[in-house]
Amino acid sequence: MFRCLGNFPFVGWKNESSDALKIEFAFDALRTFSSVAIYAHLPSSSAEFDFGFPEVIVLECSESRSQIRFNVEKAAEKIELVPKFCVGDRVGISLRHSSKWIAISEVEFASGK
Which domains does the chain have, with CATH numbers? Predict the structure, then answer.
């Protein structure tokens, strides 16, 4: 678990532009990813800080050179993505959201070599 300022169990990003938030993950070998789970932090007092959830998520897989777009229809703490074909040693995740803040507590990958 990553802890940041204030001892919170999540990392938050402020939406200051129309660009998507991009996070890149690197792995030790080529992998075939069967699922990706993103855990969004949705506090009960979210109105104070305007926390939201990602509305559009794009996975970019380095080896298969694929971009897979997922539309997220409802707020959920766990967002499960099941790509049809995602192979690589690097995976980029782009999160687009319209709220002022987004907070992610965990990203989990299921894969085989």
Answer: 11-107 (2.60.120.1190)
